[in-house]
Write the structure tokens for this entry.
Amino acid sequence: MAKGDPGGTTRSRRAAQPRSRKGAAGDPALVQLLTPDGERIDSATGPDGTEYRVDFTDEEYRGLYRDLVLVRKLDAEATALQRQGELGLWASLLGQEAAQVGSGRALRAQDMAFPTYREHGVLYCRGIDPIMPLGLFRGVDQGGWDPNEFKFNMYTIVIGAQTLHATGYAMGITIDGKTGTDDGEAAIAYFGDGATSQGDVNEAFVWASVFNAPLVFFCQNNQYAISEPLERQTRVPLYQRAAGFGFPGVRVDGNDVLATYAVTRTALDNARLGQGPSLIEAYTYRMGAHTTSDDPTRYRIASEVEAWQAKDPIARVKAFLEKQQIADADFFAEVDEQARRESVHLRERVLEMPNPEPVTMFDHVYPNGSPLLDEQRAKFSRYMESFEGSAH
Ligand SMILES: Cc1ncc(C[n+]2csc(CCOP(=O)(O)OP(=O)(O)O)c2C)c(N)n1
Ligand SMILES: [Mg+2]
């Protein structure tokens, strides 16, 4: 979809169904703008009375669909590469495409994102070459992108740690005087449902709140922390945690790319205007395994997965595009072909990735090196040299 301000300022070419309701059926707290059947809801109201709506052009709707299909296909290719021994590990985003594309497209160029290890869809929206995380999971580099250039920090494996980094960064935005206007800056921290049990995340909530940091806490509640289900993390809906820390919280249908976009855009705008942090709970489901090292059939039943398949984030956009005649069969075929082409290209480039010299692992530990590191490098080099001429 077009860069700039998609959905924000443009008027819809095609009227959405004139329907407004409070939340989605079955869950009065869930902000939803597109039902699993592809029906548009004109506006939805959050728990604090905020009204959410989007106004996309047909081209922008098609752009969102393209994003969703591409990130799913590239993710599937990465999973296949891991299965064939080309990656050490892969953390799939399957099922979470809408949460990631919706929030990723809501970011403005100046906003800074702090991901976990699963945010390949947000990475894609930030304009980073999708090959980058594959180098990390192949073990040939540390990720490879420049966080400052793309405003997307490095992946973080330590659960919840990035929420503290994001809080510090957001406090810095305020200190630099970059909030308070329409084009101010904001930050967003991604984390999972399991991460909400971490001390780091709760400390980040406290600091962000008392320092009024321009930060959006974006929790993808995919219902599991590896094998631990949500009921082992919390006895209250996660978005309600925010109240205890003194900032607003909202639960959005994380399988609805439109609602996720609307809620994230509003939260970021509030932050950039100087209104402080907020928590978004994107209610979604991890359709695949936690990582390629996990077997989810050991801890969840098939009927649960099937129930979530009916809420698929891509199928509902496709149904909407078809019903509203925004896209035709040629368009869907062209998107599929692009996805196929890009995934083949991804595969070819992964297979060509050179193995780095082991000693290069010392290269980027500190920007200006350190005497201790120099010593370790020298020792390691001598150790590697000791193998020269041997068969092992
Ligand atoms: C501090 C810390 N503790 C434990 C782990 C091991 N670990 C890796 S992923 C994970 C579960 C995280 O679940 P959640 O926050 O829901 O994110 P998801 O993987 O579901 O996206 C755990 C416990 C870790 N990486 N870091
Ligand atoms: Mg989780």
User: Anything to note?
Assistant: The first helix runs from residue 58 to 83. The chain has a mean pLDDT of 93. The pocket of magnesium ion (ligand 2) is lined by residues 192-194, 222, 224-225 (CB under 6 Å). The chain is about 40% helix and 10% strand.
